[in-house]
Amino acid sequence: MDGRSTATCALVARRSPRLADRMWGSVTLDDGREWVDRTARRQGRRLCDSCPLRTACLSDALAGQWKDARIAGGLTYRERRVLARRIPPRPGGRPRIR
Known about the structure:
Layout: H1 8-15, H2 17-24, E1 27-28, E2 34-35, H3 38-49, H4 54-63, H5 77-86
Helix pairs in contact: 1-2, 2-3
């Protein structure tokens, strides 16, 4: 990585934070419930596939054990958890995501 790459989600968020929330996160409705726009999320995941920082994003999510509803590195929390279980722990490393 040349250090000049920008995550695709950051580029979208710069132009439209609300769209970025719909693509990689969730939206809080007026009644306080969280809503996931599945169509926008599919589009966001497709953008993750070609993002120059996808591997770094996914690595950060796994190492930080992010437990949220957001898409990170193109994967949901549940998918990241499955992936983490397949990766053998490093000697002296952090425990895998639960």
